Amino acid sequence: MSRVGRCARLFAALLLMLVGSAAAGATSAHAATEQITVSLYRVVEISCDEGAGEACGNDYYPKFEIDHQGLFDGKDDYCCAHGADFRTNWVRTATVDTSHNPVDIHMELWDQDDLTADDPIRWNGSSNDLNLKFDLMTCAFTGGGLTSQQGAGVPTLAGESEGTGEDTARGYFTITTPSCLNVANSVDSDGDSLMNSWEVAGRGYDFDGDGNVDLPLGDQPYGAVPYRKDLFVEVDYMAETKPQAGALADVVKAFAEAPVDSYPDPADATKTKFRGVNLHAMEGEAVTTVNPLMWKSNGPGAADDFNDLKSGSPTSPCDGFFGTAADRASLNCANILNAKRQAFRYMIFAITFFDTSTPPKASTASGSSEWTSVGPQGGNDFIVTLDTWSPSTLADIGHRKNSEAATFMHELGHTLSLAHGGNDAVNCKPNYLSVMNYTLQFAGKDPDRPLDYSSAARGTALGTTPATVLNETSLNENNGVRGTPSPARNTVYGVAGKLRVAPATNGPIDWNGTGGDKESGIPADINYIQSIGPDDGGCSKASPGQSLGGFDDWANIQYNPRLNADFFADGDRPILPELTEETVRAMFQQADLKIAKSADEADATGGDTVHYTTTVTDLGPGTATALHVDDTLPDGSTQHRSLADLANGATATVTPAFTYLVPCSTADGTVLTNRATVTGTDTEGVPDPYTDDNTARATTTVHAPVLTVDKAATATVNAGQAITHTLTYANTGSGAASSVTLTDTLPAGVYYSHALDLGAGPKPSSVTLNNDGTRTLVWNVGNLPAHSGDRQIVFTARPTLLALAGTTYTDTVSVSYKNAGGACTFAPVTDSATTTITVVPPSRDPLSQGFWKNHPELWTAEFLARVQATDQRYDTDRSGALSTAEVTAAFGGSTAPKSVLGKQLMAVYFNLATRRINAGTAIVSRTAQALGLHNVRDAAIYAQDTLLLPVNPGTAQRYSRIIGILDDINANRIERY
């Protein structure tokens, strides 16, 4: 059931209760009669057809008949009124018998002529008469072919009738009774939040209930009717900001043509017509200039905020600029303005207002209004602030008049509960074809867009069912916005953040800008438009994956300005994000820049120089100027280049090219990123808002060798026994290595020679005995490929027989290397391993030098290797291995002290090698004690040192003593086990 129908039934029920109570307890006179007053209060001339000698327009007077009590001819009392649209004082009252219910009402409209007989005016279709029946119980009239949209059938107490053909007019009338007027005070038949009685001509709103009308909304200058929605806005302005002629009229026209309150077309029942909305945008007066104006809340001054201008400071019913000057001067001012507040919204065309920044500054937003996300959503105040916008900006969006009309309707829409997405704040929805949408507030991007809210009747309430919402995760390009408005409309949407315009249809739309317009199931962020800020509340922040639904604005308007208590009390207001001049200029920016970058090396090594090619293209449609490229190299340093202007479609290459020398310290696998950003403006100085493609990057992957080495050695050996060393190395990096060199340094006391090396190899490229007794083994590996896998070197070395139990030998290997090109030398990698000397109990039976000389069969290769590792003086051919010939030669020497000492020392080595004695075996003799020798090791080392000395009178005794000690050791005379 319609709202009008529900109100009619409510009214009837209330009236029945009233009549019933009257029957039970009222006087009989009241029960039997009712006073009916009929007023034909307004006439609009449609067509005039006077006879010869008579000039148009017509000269009007009425005729009435109530309850068949005789036709009243108003020629004498009311003749004559004339004009294209005039108000009258034509009233007829009669007392009727309630048993005659419904009461017949007859009205005629006549033209008085001087030269010919008066003739009737057609004002009810083709008929001269209007015959109605008025129901005293329901307070509704019927008949005359009138519809509910003309006041029939609903308890509005008012109606209108219109004729067709020649000599025609539209007449507005009221039919009232005291009982019906009482009930009409609480019934709103047309749903505009104004009670029926407020809107009845000759009546009005009695705010304080004193019996005197304070606000006659049904009379001039208001002109409300109770059977068509009326919306009142007082429009004030500052001296600098008076709205352009026609701006308000355009909005009034848009509301008058609104698809609100449908009814069958009397001329063709298959068609539908709409009553629309009577928007009374009543231009007021110039208020005090305040710039910027405080909008959000009250300011500290007496005239610095919106509330000061509206209601004065301190707030007073008769101060400020709300209402007319006559209202405020009236002795009844308080009641008049309080009554107006129940019906009117208030707005000011201002210059600017303070934003919410800290400290606040003048906003360049187009306006602001009262709206909140929680209901009741709409308020009763708003402002329009376009005064500082430049002529060129206003020209882009349809010039000042159209811009004022659009912003007025947009901000008024917020007070009517509409958000930027209709029922939500999601902006730039392609299926929300409303002036509330940022993309369609102004007509710049769609010059043909009507000044309109969305509606199902015009096919613009799209996406209002689950099947028709636009799901950004899975769009079907074949179905576009899933609806085709009538008349045709365009939609504005985003492709990769860039604004696009296309016909709004159920046909193909290329939502993602690739692959044509026939794809289905595609993701696209279609309400992401970088040029339309702000990020919060605008469209410049990516918002993928939304489900975008439209809305039927006209069907969901909140007409009542009193619903939100906070707004109605003029409390604090939110500052909604609105289009600013900067945003609008960005939407019409004419130079869309794109930057591209490439590197000449996708893969590089340390020491390489990477060259970057950078190009800038103007995607148009206009010339790009003030072009600057900022290039950030991989190390974070920046370089700058300026470019000449670019015409639409032109491309420029940045010269000289940006280059980067790859440091040797760059880790393997590092991705070097070179970023470049272009900035520029169009010829009007507006920066490119589409910044997603204003930054480009090129990457190069660095490939460096990464060498590892691991060293292992036999953990424990006996003195002279071979130690096995394993060197494991690899290149784990993605870059090849060159000049790879392994260097292993054996500690003093550990001997190596190629000849004695028992390992799997490879053998070192060089072996160097250092002054400190250490030996350096070097392997020149050369090149090593990337990801080489493990490579091994296995060699053996021997500790001296003179090593005591517990002696540790730590051996270190290092690997030095360069990268493939040799430009970078890297820090060597190292590892170490330790071997500890152990002993076995000696057999305690050393043999003499003579014995060892005469028993070469006991000179095994192992024993000879142990002796060689201990003392290389006997290796006369420097082969690195002790041969039997060399041992024979050593034992077969002369009787000279040096030769004798060498023989005895050789015998000691054999006794040590065969574990007959150990280096730590103690010796005790007066001579040993005198020389400070405590064990075999001490004696052997003393002998080695002695052999380095020449034999002369000064050393003779030394030679003699040590020869004796070694002889005693080999004879097992001085050992202590």
From TrEMBL:
<keyword id="KW-0732">Signal</keyword>
<dbReference type="Pfam" id="PF01345">
    <property type="entry name" value="DUF11"/>
</dbReference>
<dbReference type="InterPro" id="IPR013783">
    <property type="entry name" value="Ig-like_fold"/>
</dbReference>
<feature type="domain" description="DUF11">
    <location>
        <begin position="592"/>
        <end position="699"/>
    </location>
</feature>
<dbReference type="InterPro" id="IPR051172">
    <property type="entry name" value="Chlamydia_OmcB"/>
</dbReference>
<dbReference type="GO" id="GO:0008237">
    <property type="term" value="F:metallopeptidase activity"/>
</dbReference>
<dbReference type="InterPro" id="IPR047589">
    <property type="entry name" value="DUF11_rpt"/>
</dbReference>
<dbReference type="InterPro" id="IPR018247">
    <property type="entry name" value="EF_Hand_1_Ca_BS"/>
</dbReference>
<protein>
    <submittedName>
        <fullName>Conserved repeat domain</fullName>
    </submittedName>
</protein>
<dbReference type="InterPro" id="IPR024079">
    <property type="entry name" value="MetalloPept_cat_dom_sf"/>
</dbReference>
<dbReference type="InterPro" id="IPR001434">
    <property type="entry name" value="OmcB-like_DUF11"/>
</dbReference>
<feature type="domain" description="DUF11">
    <location>
        <begin position="709"/>
        <end position="818"/>
    </location>
</feature>
<dbReference type="GO" id="GO:0005975">
    <property type="term" value="P:carbohydrate metabolic process"/>
</dbReference>
<feature type="signal peptide">
    <location>
        <begin position="1"/>
        <end position="31"/>
    </location>
</feature>
